[in-house]
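Appendix B. One record, verbatim.
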Amino acid sequence: AGLKTLLLNVSRAVNRDVLITFSPRAGPSRLNTTEKGKAGKIHLPREIFQSLSSQTVTVVVTVLNIQQLGVFKEVNQTAQVLDNTVVGITVGESSISGLQDPVQLTFAHRQLPRDVTPQCVFWDTSKGQAGGWHSSGCFTQPGDKGTVCSCDHLTFFTLLLNPALDGSTAKALMAVATAGCGVAMAFSIFTIAFCIFIRCRFRFEETVRINLGLHVNLMGSLFLLNLAFLLNSGLSARTHPRTCRVLGGLTHYCLLCCFTWMALEGCQLYLLFIKVLGIYIHHYLAKLCLIGWGFPVLVVAVAGVIGSYGEYNIQNTDHQVIARLCWITSKHLLVHYITNCGYFGLIFLFNMAVFGVVTQKSCSLQGTGAVQGHRRPWKVAVVAAGLFCLLGATWALAFLTYGISSAPVLYLFTILNSLQGIFIFIWLIVLYYPKTKETSGSLSYITRHDKTTTASQ
């Protein structure tokens, strides 16, 4: 039950394509040209058979009902599998991939609900510990009576039904994101100006000057990222493909710069409050700038060489394109998963570990009375919240938005990251003004005393 297989012996010298039908109820069969119905179809191109060495090959088509078998289930999967049906295709005994003329699977279905988006996927055994669904190498062509999946390899395929945004929600999100970018840019400028003012107006310890320099660079990267997004959303629909690739690379570069400077903020926090840095490093801030602005160049250069950038379309439930962005193309989503999701995931884990240790030290010092005067509980709370934003914790909400599955989380992600510049600006005001001289003294205390009596700034 739940498994139906068709075996065909096909001549290698076949001069035409092979057509097969499959159905969750009837199983696979050879296609009769006069047959009509709602069965799915498999189109195997002649390229597959011409590349094989033997004269006769065996084609195996397997139709699985995963609800009955209990297999092909991804951890925390939010999307539904169409009719709980998975179709496996093998030709001969060798693995077939990189086809110029793709294999086409037509998944027959009625008109899909307005709140889902179909996606052609295959089962990737290398994803996670038990495997998972992946869309690399597959192209989705939705239709009213069926969805055509064109894939450049043979394996187990299915059609996922992802929860999608309706048109009004999608447009509202784009409006919020655009307005948020403007607000974030304004407060980024305010923060940079404030940091430069207090850095030049008051004679701080070198440690404080380095901290302010880090904040300036982080806010500068946030400003450039929001500017790149505004340019992207405004120009991507009218740009030349070559210009779009450049704009996509620029946006990716700015995003990686933000992540890198968040990581450097975490490293600086680690050196100050955990390791207690007491060694002078020549041109320390200049070396940090080389990492913060230089490392993303290498990543974007490699991604550009393999042709990762181009037009990326965002669709609503009616399959209408609501936004065209110059970004990493759908064919190179692995680049996005590695350089964005994976890279930020590592940074987030490190920064949150540092944040937890610093918070614990601050609370223990408050309890022992080592921190006095202006270090009151309310200020400790404000400083902790500011550090939380400075280390990029709000970006972690992206991991809760599987595709475009959760409109509330997307709203929260968009709003909080738009307000990140405001949070950091308020944090710096509370931290440095009007008691800038006291702040300088506290940092001097930090760098001169043993780490068991270290106080959080």
